[in-house]
Amino acid sequence: MTDQRAGTERRPTEGQVTGRPPEATDRAEGWAATTLEAKAAGSEDIGEASLWSDAWRSLRKNPFFLVGAVLLTVFLLMAAFPTLFTRTDPRDCDLSRSADGPSAGAWFGYDVQGCDYYANVVHGAQVSVSIGFLAMLGTLLIGVVIGSLAGYYGGWIDSLLARLADIFYGLPLILGAFILLSVLPDRGVLEVALALVVFGWMTAMRLVRSTVVSVKEADYVQAARALGGSTGRVLTRHILPNAVAPVLVYSTIYVGTLIAAEATLTFLGIGLQLPEISWGLQINSAQNRLRDAAHLIFFPSAFLSLTVLSFILIGDALRDALDPKLR
Fold first, then answer.
1. Residue 4, SS3?
2. pLDDT tens column, 85-115
3. Is the N end or the C end of the chain the one with fewer CB atoms within 10 Å?
4. Lowest-pLDDT range, 154-168, 196-210, 265-279, 303-317?
């Protein structure tokens, strides 16, 4: 149809072509975008649930995980509720029983002060396990934050944070913690955990960074950005969940390393100080009595080794369950 007065041809509007008004078209497009977003979110939730459900089925059949879980449960209960395992006061001492060996009345014997050694070993779990978990949480916090920033932004920020990690890599964990603790006025639980965090966050940071770098260009991340998602939301809802599996495996194994590191520092005389009760202090005080009172070293060393072993077994099982390539 031609308009004779304007001398121009009338062009059909969008509503005439589609058979509906422009307002309806806009609403339909909005509904479609919302539906696609919901489907994408639902697919992601289904995939995540499937991953963890498959992992749990695999873990339940893994004997190493079951053994590690039983050991870890016992030691966690021992650390949280030592009175469930013994009613004896670990500070009730009698020098007449100094370094006596195991007997029916004292399963683990007595220490050099004449204190019940079983009660001391049980109460020593609380400090050692607490330091391990505090140091692990601090390590994950610093590693996740720095690794996320380095991997997401890249460029000079990534280079700067990577060089910072390299500087801390120059000092081994035990040596760096030894130097830091030697200048601190107090060496309690928080100070030892802090020293282990300061020189132990770098590996967690690199794990998170590598995951973020590999995930940030994925289609669903680009879709989240296109839909107006903020940087914080994209990181916490779409990128970091993909870093949970490797970091979880690492932290499970690393907490055992931290417990052993605390015992090593205390054995060297630079960790915890009396009157704290810990396995490291017990091993340190008994190092000169190996020939005439071997039980003073054997029992805290056995508990320390079993605790570290439980974390390693669980970490290895988690790695196998969460990595489809290994299955």
1. coil
2. 988 888 888 888 888 888 888 889 898 888 9
3. N
4. 265-279
Looking at residue 4, its pLDDT comes to 45
Under 8 Å between Cβ of 200 and 142: no
Question: Considering only CA atoms, which of 171, 169, 149 is closest in space to residue 160?
Answer: 149
**Cis ω before 12 (30° cut-off from 0):** no
pLDDT for residue 97 = 86
Closest CA to 196 of 221, 174, 170, 225: 174
Q: How far is CA 111 from the centre of its chain?
A: 35
**What is the C-alpha separation between 105 and 58, in angstroms, rounded?**
44
- For residues 181 and 268, give the distance between their C-alpha atoms in angstroms, rounded to a whole number: 12
Between CA 112 and CA 188, with CA 277 as vertex, the angle to 5 degrees is 130
CA–chain centroid gap for 248, Å, is 5
**Residue 158 in tokens:** 């990534």
Per residue in 212-260, pLDDT (tens digit) is 888 877 777 778 777 777 777 777 777 777 777 788 888 888 888 899 8
